[in-house]
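pinned: reference chain
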Amino acid sequence: MNKETIKNIRKFIAEQNKHGKLLSNYRLLADPIKIFQDSGINVGLEENKEIILKEETYLELGGINKRSFSLIHPIFDMNLIEDGKITLLGPEIHQISDFNVDFGLLILIEVENLSKKEYHDIKSLNFISNGIEGFSIRTIPRKFWCRIGNKAYNKKFSFEFLGNAIIYLYRQKFKELIKKMEILIICSYPKTINEFIELSSDITNKFQEELKAKIDEWRKRIDCEYDWGCEICPYKEECYDIKQVLVERERIGK
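pinned: its structure tokens
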């Protein structure tokens, strides 16, 4: 992502607001831990491994029948990110009456130098699912799908809270690697999400190319000749077991 793309994203957000879309700007709180404690919602690395069942869910974000995206993008150019800024384009959680809404999340992270492993680790959002009580990310191919539990909602869970929790957990996990962070959330506006996906296609195309290359490399290593995608492969479990063996062999060989 370059300076021009960031500029276009900021222009896009301002134009959406001019066209009547709800826009809220939050900041990372000076003491997020106190806010977490006051709310009664636990936030901590690997402290909240839970599955939120449908009957326990207050709100579903994204999913099978909704437009959604999640983009986590490290930026090496300086001064492109407004550190600690959390932008919400759409209604806050307490303003939503539907059970399931369209949802998009963009996380911009300023870094200096990253190893290949650190680069891929920092782009993975799954650890957030185990870090926020009452919030979970469901795994589904090509879709971003989250759930907010009834108990979390009753404790005033909000997108402002979510943004603060994400930044806090990232900084806890990656510490000195992260220089700045900025978050954009788009909620309940499917057309806006479609337009944003088009606007950010340079990021998504690069990510898809990286993912395809990674899958192709893995298939070569295990001599896989099947044409179907990994997510529907009937040998997925066996393939995973083989992968674990290869990873362990590489670790021992170092």
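why pinned: Residues 222-253 form one domain. The beta strands are 23-27, 57-62, 68-75, 85-89, 100-101, 103-110, 135-138, 145-149, 180-187.
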